[in-house]
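Handout, section 4.2: multi-component inputs.
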Amino acid sequence: MSYDVNGATIEHDEEGYITNLSEWSKELAGIIAVAEDIDMGEEHWAVVNFLREYYEEYQIAPAVRVLIKSIKKSMGPEVGNNKYMYELFPYGPAKQACKIAGLPKPTGCV
Amino acid sequence: MVSTVYAVLFYIATLVLVVGVVMRVINYARTPVPLKIVVSPAPRTRKGVWFRMFREVTLFESLFKSNKWIWLFGYLFHFGMLLVLLRHFRYFQRDVWGWVEIIQPFGIYAGFAMVAGLAGLLFRRIFQQRIRYISDPSDYLMLLLFLGIAGSGLMMKFVNHVDIIAVKAFMLGLMRFQIGEMPRDPILMIHLGSVVSLMLIFPISKLMHAPGVFFSPSRTQVDNAREKRHISKWAAELPDLPEGIPEKKEG
Amino acid sequence: MASLDMDAKGGPKFVGDPLKIPQIECGAMADSKTFAAYPVHNEDLGFPGELLDNWKEVAIAKIGELADKNRAFKVYLDACVKCGACTDKCHYFLGTGDPKNMPVARQDLLRSVYRRYYTFAGKYFPWLVGARDMTREVLDEWYTYYHQCSQCRRCSVACPYGIDTAEISMAARDILDSVGVGQKYCNEIIAKLKKTGNNLGLNPKALRATLEDLEEDLEEETGIAVKLPLDVQGADILLITPSADFFAEPHIEGLLGYAKVFHASGVSWTISSYASEAANFGMFIGSYENMREVSWRIRQAAKDLGVKRIVFGECGHAWRVGYSFLNTLAGPFDFLDQNYPIPQHIMEFTSDAIDDGLLKIDKSRNDEFVMTYHDSCNVARGSSMGRKQGGQFDLPRKVIKAVCNHFYEMERDTIRENTFCCGGGGGLLTDDLMDLRIKGAKPRMTALQQVTEDHGVTHMAAICAICKTQFSKVMPKYGYEMDNVMSVHQLVANAVILDGQETEADVATAEDTP
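Output:
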C-alpha cells in the first residue's frame, strides 16, 4: 500500500492516509486527489493549505466549523459554507481533505 | 424384572434431576455479575423486579410483546403441562388433596392444550424458515420427547386404558422404597420411559432455561446503579488505579 | 406495500414497512471485514499484538474464564431454547437478510464452541446440539459477524429470558482481543484516549483553541459572553461530553446548547482536558479493565478540579457507561455533592432548568423544523434518566416539546424500548463498514420516511454522537440531507434567549417604535 511520487514510494494505510506525515508534498497531494477522483482547484488548495497550517500549530485537524469559518474569511461565504465544502470534498472535508493534506484520519464518533 | 428396571431408573433420574439442577443453580448463583446490565426500562426497586419477574413467568410478557404465535403455542404448552403435572399429584398421594381432585378434569383438557402447543412449536420449527435455520437436532428431539410423553399419556386416558390403581400403587411404593409391580402396558412403559429420559437430560440441556430465567441479570437486577454501588468480588480485587492526574503531578 | 425505491425521483414515494422481514440470504454479509488493529494498538490495550501461536488453547480457556467471571455470559449461553422470538429483531438482519445476523444465530457462533468444550452434551454428542470445534474458520467467522452487532439490545427486550446478545458479542470481542485479533477502529481509539484523553486525539492546546473559537461564535450570535470553560478549578459542574462535540456537525451545535443552558442557569462549569471524552469504547470490546481505565479518568479529573457534580453530554453508549457502570468502575463518588444524581445527564439538567423557569424560550425559532426523535439504543435500553422509570424516553421528548412546536412520533415498534439502532453503534462507525451501516440504518430510515410522508417531518433529533454521525452519513442514501439529523440541544440552543440577548423581535419592535 503506497503512493508513487516521482519514483519515491510513500506508504499509506488501508484507506489511503499516509503513514509518515513528513513525507507529504504538493505532488503527493495531487496524486492522492487523483486517487480520490478530485480535480484540485484553487478552492481545494485553500482548504488543504489551511488544514496543514492548522495541523502545524495544533497537531490535529480543525473542526469542520473552524475550517469553514476560516475559509469564509479568506474566500467569502460562497465558498465558506458546509454545502460547498461537501461539493469540493464529497466524502467530507474532515476526512477526504485531511487525506489529501497528509493529515491523520480524524478518529472517534466523527 | 421390568418393575425393578423402571424403579431403579426412576431413582437414578430423580437423583440426577435434583442434584443436577441444584448444582447448576448453586453455580449460577455463585457466578459473579460484574456490571449492572438491566435492560431498561426496568424497575428501580426490588419489589418492582419481583413484579416484573412474576409477569414474565406467569404471562410470558416479553414473549407476548415480541411474537404472538410463539407466545400462544409456548403458553399452551407450558401451562397445559403445569396443570397436567399438578393433576399427576394424585399418583403420589395416598389421600389426594382437595384441589388436586378439583383440577382433575381440567388437567385432561390441559393435556390437549399441551399437545396443541407442542405441535404448533414443532410446525413452526419445521416450516418457518428462520427458526429452521437456528434449530439443531436436539431442538426437534426435545419437542418430540414432550409430544411422546403427552401423547402416550392421553392415549392411556382415551384409547387404551391402563390400570391406574396399579400404577398408583407402584408409585406410592417407590416413594417408600418398596418396589411393587408395574403394569406391563407398552404405552405406560413408553410414557414413564420418556419421563425418565426427560428428567435425566434436564440439567444438561436447554431445559435449564426454567431455573435460568431467575438468574438472568438483564431482568433480575434492580435499576439503581447511581444510588447503590454494584461491585463484584473479582472486580473489587483489581489493582488500584492512581488518584489524581499523573501528568500534572510530574509537570 | 411497495418496497423502498431509493432511486425514485424526489425520494421514495411508497414507504415500506420498517419491520419488514427479509427472506434469508445465506452468506450475504460473509465478506464484511472490518480492518484489523495494528499490533501496537492491541499492545497498548494489554492484548497480544498478533495472533498467538497457541491461540486456540487461549481462546478456549478464555471462554471458561468468562463463564466463571460473568453470570450473564454463562446463563445466556445455557438458557436459550431457540424459540425464534428474536430472529426478526436485529436491524442488521432486517437490512441484510444474512441469517447469521439473527440474534440467536449470532450467539450460536460462540455458543456452539462453548458447548463443545464446556457442556456434557457438546463434549459427547456434538452433532446433537450443534457443537463445533474451535478452528481458524470459526475465529474468522466471529470476527466477521461479531463486528456486525451494534450491541443495541433490541433482541434482549424480545427474549423471554432477557438473553442479551450484546453480552455475547462483547465477550466474543474480548476473546478475539485476548488472542491478538483486535479491530482497528476500536483499539486505535482506546489507545489514543489513553494518551490524549479523548477519541479524537485532541490535545489541550487544540481543545482550548476550539472552545475559544466557539465562544467567539456565541458572542457574535447573542451579544453575550457565553463561556466554554476549560480546566477551571473549583467549578461546580464537570461536563463530560463526547469529543465529537468539539469537532463534528451537528454535535457542536449541541455543545453550544449545553453552554447556553449552563449560562442561563447561572452555574459554574468546566470541561476537563484530561477527561475530555464521554465515549468509552472499552465497553464495545467487552474489556472490563479497559473500560475501567477509561472511566477512571473522569474520577481523576473530578477530584483534581474539585467539582461538585458530573454532567454527561449527548452520547449514547457513554450514558450507558455513565448511568449503569460509572459507580461500579470508578466509584464511590463520596467526594461529590450527594444531592444530585452521580452522574447526571444534560437532559436531566435542562429538564430541571425548564421546570425551574430558568430558561427563556421562544419555540417559534424552531418553526422551520418538523421534528421526530430517535431514541438512541444505549440510552433507551441501557440507562435511565430522571426520577421515574422510563425517564430516558420522556425527558428528551419533554425538552424537545418545550422548544419546538412541531413534533411527531415514529412507528410505535421503532421507538422507546423498541427503538432501532442507527446502524453505526457498538464500534461499527467506521468507513470500512459503510455497506453494513447503510443496510443497518434501513429500518430506522424507513420509519422516518413514514413520518415524512404522513406528517411532513423534516428533521430527526438524537442524543448520541454515534447516531448523529451515522445519520449525517447515511441519510443522503435515503433521500435526506446530511443536516436533517440534529442534536436535541441544538434545538434548545435555537430556542433559548439569554438574559440581555438582543433578538430579531427586539430589533423589529425597536424599529417600529417612533
